[in-house]
Design a protein that fits this description.
This protein is α/β, with parallel strands linked by helices. The chain has 11 helices and 9 strands. It has one domain. A 7-stranded mixed beta sheet has the order 1-9-8-2-5-3-4, with helices on both faces. A two-stranded antiparallel ribbon has the order 6-7. β6 and β7 form a beta hairpin. α3 crosses α5. The protein is globular and about 50 Å long. The N and C termini lie far apart (49 Å).
Length: 285
C-alpha cells in the first residue's frame, strides 16, 4: 500500500544516486537563482556568524550550502530503497566501539544532533547499533508528507515518536528494559513559550531548547554528539564525541554548553553543511 501511495518517490529513489544529483543541480538553479529561497536569512546568518570572513568567502559558503541543501532532498528520497551495501559505502562511523562499550555498560544514550551534514541519514543507525534507536519529531501539517517522512525515517527500524509523547515513551521502553539510542535535534530556535537556555554561540547570544538536557539528566543517559564531515558528494563520516557519560552528576545545563561548543566546532570545519536557511536567531536575549 505504501509503495503505491508514495510511488512517485519510490520510482525516483530507484534511480542511481548520480542521476539524482543531476536533478539536484537543476533544483539548485531554481532555488538559489530563480526563487532565491530564504537568501536574505542565509546571508544575514552567515555574515553575523563569520565576521572575520571576507564577503567573497561568505558568498562561496552560501553557494555551497544551497548545493548541499538540494543534495539532501534527493539523498533523503534515495533512503527509500538504499540497500545495506550502498549505505555502508556512504554513511561511515569512525568509532562504533564507543556505543558498543556504553551498551555493555547498560547505558541509554541521547544523540544530541543537529541539522548538519545529512541528518536524515541518521535513520541508518539501526544497521550499526544494538540499541533500540528512537527519534523525536514534530508532525508536519501536510498529512501526506508527514507519512512519507515517517516511512523514510522508520524503514530500517527507527522508532519515530511525536515530541509531545517523547519522555513518556522513553520511560515505557526503560520499564521494558530496552536500551535506547535517542536521536534529538537540538539546534532549532525555541518558541516564545518554550523553556530555553542562553549561551554564546557563533558570535551571538543564542537560545537553545532544553529537551535533550532535561531528558539526559532525568534518565542519566550518556550524551553523544555526532561530529560529521562530508568526505565527498554523498559520502559522510561521523565521529561520536562523548559529551557526558553521567549528566546527573554534572553541573546544571553543562550538556547544552558542551553541545553548543561541539556544534560550533563542527560548523567551522565545513560551514556549508549546516542549515543556514533556518531563522535561528529570531529570539533575542
Amino acid at each position: 500500500m505504501n509503495k503505491l501511495k508514495f510511488s512517485p518517490f519510490y520510482l525516483l529513489s530507484l534511480l542511481p544516486i548520480n542521476v539524482l544529483y543531476i536533478f539536484s543541480d537543476i533544483l539548485y538553479v531554481f532555488i538559489f537563482k530563480v526563487f532565491q529561497y530564504r537568501r536574505d536569512i542565509v546571508m544575514d546568518n552567515l555574515i553575523k556568524s563569520f565576521p572575520e570572513k571576507k564577503y567573497r568567502e561568505i558568498r562561496e559558503i552560501e553557494k555551497r550550502f544551497y548545493h548541499h541543501f538540494c543534495d539532501i532532498m534527493f539523498e533523503s528520497i534515495k533512503t527509500l530503497t538504499m540497500n545495506k551495501r550502498e549505505i555502508e559505502k556512504r554513511f561511515k562511523i569512525k568509532n562504533p566501539e564507543l556505543i558498543q562499550e556504553l551498551y555493555h555498560q547498560n547505558k541509554n544514550i541521547v544523540l544530541y544532533s543537529a541539522h548538519l551534514g545529512n541528518w536524515e541519514w541518521c535513520t541508518f543507525l539501526p544497521l550499526f547499533l544494538d540499541h533500540q534507536v528512537t527519534a523525536f519529531y514534530q508532525p508536519l501539517s501536510n498529512k501526506y508528507f508527514d507519512e512519507l517522512m515517517k516511512l523514510i525515517r522508520s524503514r530500517l527500524g527507527v522508532l519515530c515518536i511525536p515530541s509531545q509523547n517523547g519522555y513518556k515513551t522513553l520511560l515505557k521502553l526503560k520499564a521494558e528494559k530496552k536500551l535506547t539510542f535517542n536521536l534529538i535535534i537540538g539546534d532549532q530556535s525555541p518558541s516564545h513559550k518554550s523553556s530555553r537556555y542562553w549561551t554564546h554561540f557563533l558570535h551571538r547570544e543564542t537560545a537553545f531548547l532544553m529537551g535533550a538536557d532535561v531528558i539526559s539528566n532525568k534518565n542519566n543517559c550518556a550524551v553523544i554528539y555526532p561530529q560529521c564531515i562530508k568526505v565527498k558528494r554523498g559520502v559522510y563520516e561521523t565521529q561520536f564525541i562523548l559529551l557526558d557519560e553521567s549528566p546527573r552528576e554534572s553541573q546544571k545545563h553543562s550538556v547544552i554548553e558542551k553541545y553548543s561548543k561541539a556544534l560550533e566546532e563542527n560548523i567551522n570545519q565545513q560551514p556549508y553543511l549546516w542549515l543556514w536557511s533556518h531563522n535561528r536567531w529570531k529570539l533575542s536575549a
